[in-house]
């Protein structure tokens, strides 16, 4: 067993942990980062498969993600805009394919009116909610006691309007059925992006990508921290802490430090034995966070054939297996790439199929949007994260109904010299890379005594 002494030990080499370590190094502190995986990046990952660079994890940059944008510039990286020229495709409940250029597809007038009314109301309420301290809203307890689905259905009897609005949070963000999380959780998600209208504006949310791949952010952070300070394949299982500091023990190494930062999703913290144990309510709070489920599919084609047909590649079909698709073509790829997402119950159903049947069903859904040419990509790949031991789902965790107001500030509270950092406990940038950076910087300040 190797023994190391340092100022701060960071558990987890995702974006939050690496950001914390980077800021601490800039402040003159010594750090050691322990990571269970064989790589850095956490939920930001790229694979090189058959010569195709596949961004498996988080990849987009929104204009309001100020900390991510600043860090990209600081690390000397560049971005490029998502392709969005042309018409969009909507598939309705009956399976009809509707081509449109408007912000909303040409649905029935009454349904459109309900969609706009619900969106406006959610936007107004979400702008009243502080995403960092949502429990301070005067109606927080009321909003946290009702599911998002129940609130929508109590406010409209138009099923098509509910089916259109709910997935902007359930399928597109929290990746859980709308009855599995509270209205307050939905409002926090919206508030963290500037409001429900901004959350639903895909030209904002999916604005840009990092040239060469988002994985370059954690890779460059690791370079700044120093690879000699990062221990991969080191699964931390115990943290002893007291007035004199912490001792963190992982695979073949024990690190003694003054402070520790646990940069893991809340659902993974319970894998660690704390001595003494975490305060009861803190431990209970961590248990009520759970991951969503989403399959990210990328299909590479010899050419972006949809562009020649005047299509942007952007689609939406709340009743489809693949509920949303976008043009994901990188500047250095001569062909065209589509990326699609299957969330919550649709993801559950797809994961019950064998690989061949799942591919056939998913590409069949692509073909409903783009025609027969979508059935035969040059390269096809899926990622779901659910079977990865150190992730167990995507995109992030969210609390159960009633959990936000029940535990309040415990979500980010430190325990003696132990601090927590993760996008899942962020305010602004909640469950996004921007939120991971914000929480990493916050934890670094706490660990430095500021």
From TrEMBL:
Recorded hits in Gene3D superfamilies, A to Z, give: FAD/NAD(P)-binding domain
Q: Which cofactor does it need?
A: FAD
- Does the keyword section mention Oxidoreductase? yes
Cite the Amine oxidase domain residue spans from the record: 15-444
Matching Pfam families: Amino_oxidase
Any idea which UniProt keywords this protein has?
Answer: Oxidoreductase
Q: Could you tell me which InterPro entries the record lists for this protein?
A: Amino_oxidase, FAD/NAD-bd_sf, Flavin_amine_oxidase, Flavin_MAO
Q: Which PANTHER family match?
A: AMINE OXIDASE (PTHR43563), AMINE OXIDASE [FLAVIN-CONTAINING] B (PTHR43563:SF1)
Family (UniProt)? Belongs to the flavin monoamine oxidase family.
Its recorded name reads NAD(P)/FAD-dependent oxidoreductase
**What's the source species for this entry?**
Leucobacter iarius
């Amino acid at each position: 067993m190797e023994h190391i002494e340092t100022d701060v030990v960071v558990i987890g080499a995702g974006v939050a942990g690496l950001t914390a370590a980077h800021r601490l190094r800039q402040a003159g502190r010594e750090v050691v980062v322990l990571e269970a995986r064989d790589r850095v990046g956490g939920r930001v990952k790229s694979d090189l498969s058959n010569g195709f660079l596949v961004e498996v994890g988080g990849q987009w940059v929104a204009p309001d993600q100020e900390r991510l944008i600043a860090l990209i510039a600081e690390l000397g990286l560049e971005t490029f805009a998502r392709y969005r020229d042309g018409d969009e495709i909507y598939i309705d409940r009956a399976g009809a394919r509707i081509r449109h250029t408007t912000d909303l597809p040409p649905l029935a007038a009454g349904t459109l009116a309900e969609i706009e009314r619900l969106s406006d109301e959610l936007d107004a309420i979400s702008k009243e909610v502080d995403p960092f301290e949502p429990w301070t809203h005067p109606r927080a307890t009321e909003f946290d006691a009702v599911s998002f689905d129940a609130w929508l259905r109590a406010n409209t009897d138009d099923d098509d309007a509910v089916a259109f609005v709910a997935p902007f949070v359930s399928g597109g963000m929290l990746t859980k059925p709308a009855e599995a999380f509270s209205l307050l959780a939905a409002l926090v998600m919206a508030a963290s992006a500037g409001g429900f209208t901004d959350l639903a504006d895909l030209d904002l949310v999916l604005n840009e990508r990092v040239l060469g791949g988002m994985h370059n952010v954690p890779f460059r952070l690791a370079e700044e921290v120093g690879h000699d300070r990062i221990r991969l394949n080191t699964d931390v299982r115990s943290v002893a802490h007291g007035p004199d500091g912490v001792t963190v023990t992982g695979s073949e190494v024990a690190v003694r430090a003054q402070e520790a930062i646990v940069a893991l999703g809340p659902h993974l913290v319970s894998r660690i034995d704390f001595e003494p144990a975490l305060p009861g309510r803190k431990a209970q709070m961590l248990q009520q966070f759970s991951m969503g489920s989403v399959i990210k599919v990328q299909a590479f084609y010899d050419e972006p054939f949809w562009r020649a047909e005047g299509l942007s590649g952007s689609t939406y079909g709340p009743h489809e297996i693949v509920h949303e698709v976008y043009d994901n073509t990188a500047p250095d790829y001569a062909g065209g790439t589509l990326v699609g997402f299957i969330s919550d119950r649709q993801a559950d159903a797809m994961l019950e199929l064998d690989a061949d049947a799942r591919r056939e069903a998913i590409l069949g859904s692509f073909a409903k949007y783009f025609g027969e040419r979508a059935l035969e990509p040059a390269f096809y790949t899926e990622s779901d994260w659910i079977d990865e031991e150190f992730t167990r789902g995507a995109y992030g965790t969210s609390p159960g109904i009633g959990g936000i107001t029940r535990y309040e500030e415990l979500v980010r509270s430190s325990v003696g010299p132990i601090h927590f950092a993760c996008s899942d406990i962020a305010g602004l940038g909640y469950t996004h890379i921007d939120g991971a950076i914000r929480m990493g910087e916050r934890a670094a300040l706490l660990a430095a005594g500021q």
